[in-house]
Amino acid sequence: MSASSHSIEHLLAEAWRVREQACARYSNFAVGACLECADGSLFLGCNVESSSYGLTCCAERVALFSALAAGQREFLRVAVVAETPEPCPPCGACRQVLFDYAPTLQVILGNRESHLIRGIGELLPLGFHDDYFRRQDRS
Ligand code: THU
């Protein structure tokens, strides 16, 4: 499948679909994410909560980590959805990790009513990046 062959509506629909799998027994706040890779493949994530709350993993990072584990390294867009009054914004931790692995990513923020699109660099202005400590011999 070629790059950017999915409609925004499809990415949002997939995010809503995986949101059904959210393991959100503590917050009761379910989130879904659909990450589109450069080769057109899609990786889905929902939030997975822990009884030790800080170990919870957000939907966006579940999707990203799944894609990385499958060998994907180039990412185009991610759709994030939840039942929020405004289109659901990624948390600060996810903004950082998404920026680390996909500094040109387009983020589609969605709720039941609408969506909006922002670059990850807009969502994380002056973001920290590994260029600041990169060494020549690091892979
Ligand atoms: N959550 C996400 O999955 N993504 C975000 O960007 C915001 C927060 C989850 C984490 C936790 O399971 C619940 O929403 C409440 O914070």
Topology:
Layout: H1 8-19, E1 32-37, E2 42-46, H2 59-69, E3 75-81, H3 92-101, E4 106-110, E5 115-119, H4 120-123
Parallel strand pairs: 3-4
Antiparallel strand pairs: 1-2, 1-3, 4-5
Top-tier CATH class = Alpha Beta
> What oligomeric assembly is this protein in?
single chain
| Continuous helix count | 4
The averaged pLDDT comes out at: 95
Radius of gyration based on Cα positions: 15 Å
Structural summary, described in words:
The structure is a single chain. With 139 residues, the chain is of the alpha+beta class. It has a single domain (8-133), classed as 3-Layer(aba) Sandwich (Cytidine Deaminase, domain 2). Helices cover 27% and strands 20% of the residues. The protein is built from four helices and five strands, in the order H-E-E-H-E-H-E-E-H. Strands 2-1-3-4-5 form a five-stranded mixed sheet. The longest helix is centred in the N-terminal third of the chain and has 12 residues, at 8-19. The protein is globular and about 45 Å long. The protein starts with 7 loop residues before the first helix and ends in a 16-residue tail after the last helix. The chain binds tetrahydrodeoxyuridine. Residues 24, 27, 29, 31, 47, 49, 56, 58-60, 90-91, 94 line the site of tetrahydrodeoxyuridine. Tetrahydrodeoxyuridine (THU) is lined by residues 24, 27, 29, 31, 47, 49, 56, 58-60, 90-91, 94.
